[in-house]
Amino acid sequence: MTISKLKLSTLAIMATVSLGLGVTTTQPAHAATYRTVSSKSLTKTAYHKKSTKGAIYNYGHSKKVANLKTYPNTTWYATKQETWKHSNSKGIYLKVSNKSGSVKGWIWHGYLKKGKAPFGLKYAKGAVAMDTSTGKVVWSKAANTARPIASVSKLMTLYLTLKKVHTKSAKWTDVVKTNSKGLIAMGNDAACGGFRFKSGHKYTVKELYYAAYLDSSNNAAIALGKWVSGSNGKFIKKMNAQAKSWNLKHASFVSASGLENSDLKVFGYNYGSANANKVSPKDVALIARHLIKDYPRVVKDGKIGSKKVDGQSLYNYNNLLPGRTYYQKSLNVDGLKTGYTPLAGYCFVGTGQKKGKHRVITVVLHDINEFTETRSLMNHANKASSMSD
């Protein structure tokens, strides 16, 4: 029996090339180097990559479709198998596609292994999913590597604010000093501000709590810290002391707001020798867990999409809330905190409770797709047995 040949590439494809003066000749545009020796259909079978090596090609192996390393957590489904001959060697190739069918082609079988791809996040540099009830980490990526966390830092500021509010010496209606020139300038700054301290207005703890929480106001966070401890420096020491009391081994703070000292210096609120707050994903999740368990009102407040304080609109940037782009009804997301600086990248701490499951806390740090990957992480965490009631 003669060996069958690959479509469009087993015979040399002839291209017509003009030589000028009306004289033409033909020559192969693509040499036929692969031939089909045998072919069979397969029951749809799941595979995933063995390593970062390998690529998917079109039929005929003349054009690369995709590198496996750019699809680190993709499950590929094979529906056909062929043995191809190339020079003096033979190889088994699989016809594969991803789940959506947006990427498909042929790949040497040795680059894949059977089974669905293990769960993973492509973009986050650090991430954690934690069972709020037990404190158990159900999935992680670089869980104990401390890195800048931007406005996620405000979770600690909010915790210490709520801690003081719940003492006999303080209340929500206490007026906070906001007449600092640095804080006023910060509020008026396009890059570092957003919430303005208007002259003559007396801001309460509750108003600044919402400004810091929902709108991620930096000057509100610093003002609350000064209200809690008397000065910015004393408050940052309290932040670190609280982290130590929780036995957080990968957490250090130099800022109540999450802004880096390189930005705070011009406003007179730089502190310490390090440039940024650095906390590991696991320790961020633990801070969030303490906040939720000790002061559960943050979950209720975290669902507020927008609110006005002193005529200023506070916008909650959590895009997993109802009506937002990445909302998924079954996840019941009701918090918690976004963050961004160029140094920290996009950060997000999310929480939600799926029906019949424990509440989950997720953390993604330095992630260009923070809401998409949070949603994937929450769905994965909820499948874990430890998350069931």
Automatic annotation (TrEMBL):
Is the keyword Transport in the record? Answer: no
Q: Which processes are annotated in GO (biological process)?
A: cell wall organization; peptidoglycan biosynthetic process; proteolysis; regulation of cell shape
Question: In the UniProt entry, which residues are flagged as the active site?
Answer: S151, K154, S216
Instruction: Spell out the InterPro entries in the cross-references.
Output: Beta-lactam/transpept-like, Peptidase_S11, Peptidase_S11_N
Reply yes or no: does the keyword Magnesium apply: no
Note the PANTHER family from the entry. D-ALANYL-D-ALANINE CARBOXYPEPTIDASE (PTHR21581), D-ALANYL-D-ALANINE CARBOXYPEPTIDASE DACA (PTHR21581:SF11)
Regarding protein family, the annotation reads: Belongs to the peptidase S11 family.
**What name has this protein been given in UniProt?**
D-alanyl-D-alanine carboxypeptidase
Organism expressing this protein natively: Levilactobacillus suantsaii
